[in-house]
Amino acid sequence: CPMLEIEVANRQNRHPIDADRLVTVARLVLEEEGISRATLSIAVVSDRAIRQLNRRYLQHDYATDVISFLLDSGIGWISGEIVVSADTAATQAPQYGLSPEDELLLYVIHGTLHLVGFDDTTPAARRKMQARQRRYLHRLQSPP
């Protein structure tokens, strides 16, 4: 039985979130990508908070959708943090025909895939990652 410790900290109060769904999708991605032990924290924050993190750690002075931090890893295990912006999810979702909740789910999927070794630095890698994201999102997406 996989030992996956996943916790969600909701650090914003402008948008409702479903913490259980965020945990469920992170667990699904970890299990399917071969991770049997993990300690993962997911922080749901405002655009203001994620902009500060983006500036401090990545030298980008703007709000973003998701930032992931791999703290430690080995064969079959990871320790990491994912920070997602509920504000960005709410503003971006309509462009993609998603609910803000599903957009936030997508950010958690994206961040988790980064932690398990996916990247989006080349067009080919980005396509592979996006295909994976869609597959996980479809499995957990809310019915319209």
Which features would summarize this protein structure in a list?
24% strand; four-stranded mixed beta sheet; 144 residues; alpha/beta
Give a summary of the structure in a few sentences:
The chain is an alpha/beta fold and 144 residues long. The chain contains five helices and four strands, in the order E-H-E-H-E-E-H-H-H. The longest helix is centred in the last third of the chain and has 18 residues, at 123-140.
Characterization of this structure:
With 144 residues, this protein is α/β, with parallel strands linked by helices. 49% of the residues lie in helices and 24% in strands. The protein has helices spanning 19-32, 47-58, 86-96, 100-115, 123-140; strands at residues 3-10, 37-45, 66-74, 77-85. The chain has a 4-stranded mixed sheet. Helix 3 crosses helix 4 (100-115) and helix 4 (100-115) crosses helix 5 (123-140). The longest helix has 18 residues, at 123-140. The chain is globular. The protein starts with a strand and ends with a helix.
